[in-house]
Amino acid sequence: MLALSLCVTLASCGEKHIMTIGSTEIGYDEYRYYLLNNKRDSFNSAETLTEEQIEELKSLTEENAKYSAAIEALAEKYGAELTDEDNAQVEAYIAAYKAEECYNNEESYESSLESYYMTEELFKELQKDTLLVYRTMDKMVEAGAIVADDAVIDSLIVSDELLCIKEIYLSYPSEETKEYVHNRAVEAYTAIMNGGDFTEIMRKYSSYNEAEMSPEHGYYTTEYEMPEYIWQAAVTLADGEVSEIIESPYGYHIVMRCEKDTAYMEEIREDITDRYISAMYTKALYETIESLEVEYTSYGNRLKIETIS
């Protein structure tokens, strides 16, 4: 739950505001959180960046902030709020994290938070807003903004809006390993093209564990659950066809589109419904992001991001 992929609204944190997005103010602590995680993930925390890299880093951080502001905007639009039970759950999670991950050692806890470039207040707000997403989805269903009744799910199951895929994913943790991992991807792809069984080759080469691979039935997914490069590759395939090797910022991917199993889809119908609701929320979130404008404060305009550490 600490990962950057859980972008959340943390506008109440930090005394100095860097920017305003819609009605949301983005504070220094939140901005630093996004920026330094992006710097580590995209530039290996390099001390010196080119002008082009600085602009890219600024753009990535701005996108994170817009995502965060969109979460808040959707929650406000549909009147979503956390319950007392939600707040208690956050406190319990933090207490468990301290006990299990940091052995109730305050120094260890602070060190762990700083490794993700966050303060304790940021950590708490991050957990709260993760739950706020679910409360917003509930409100959107209540309001009819998301419809996921039997008729909708019946239509989804037989349409190309729900695909079954299997994926071989080979990650490379650093540039030094990229060539080796690419060669492994070529080996896997060649074996498939020579008639090898996709599932067995997936088990041999993929960085995913067995559960993540879904080797028996494949993974049933909608457009907004998958990275765009995976979805675009899969949707153009016929059942049983395999994509070429796809390179992403995270590694190499080989995708097979599978024939959908009607009986199995009925078994997991509740899961398909939940993921459809999540996908429709994500679609609304992206539309909200597109509508938001960013305005930097005078402080934000003066701030040199290469000095943030």
The termini sit apart by: 23 Å
**Main sheet: strand order:** 4-3-6-5
By helix and strand content, what is the structural category? alpha+beta
Mean pLDDT: 91
Instruction: Specify the overall morphology.
Output: globular
Count of helical regions = 13
Biggest sheet features: 4 strands, antiparallel
Number of domains: 2
What percent of the residues sit in helical stretches (DSSP H or I)? 55-70%
Radius of gyration: 22 Å
Q: Which regions are unreliable across 5 or more consecutive residues at pLDDT < 50?
A: 1-14
Total strand segments: 7
- Give the helices and strands as they follow along the chain: EEHHHHHHEHHHEHEEHHEH
Describe this structure in words.
By secondary structure, the chain is α+β, with helices and mostly antiparallel strands. Helix content is 58%, strand content 12%. The protein has helices at residues 28-43, 51-77, 84-102, 106-115, 120-143, 150-158, 175-193, 198-205, 210-213, 228-235, 262-267, 269-291, 298-302, and strands at residues 17-21, 24-27, 162-171, 219-222, 246-248, 251-258, 294-296. A hairpin with a 2-residue loop joins strand 1 and strand 2. Helix 2 packs across helix 5 (120-143). The radius of gyration is 22 Å and the shape is globular. The model is unreliable at 1-14 (pLDDT under 50).
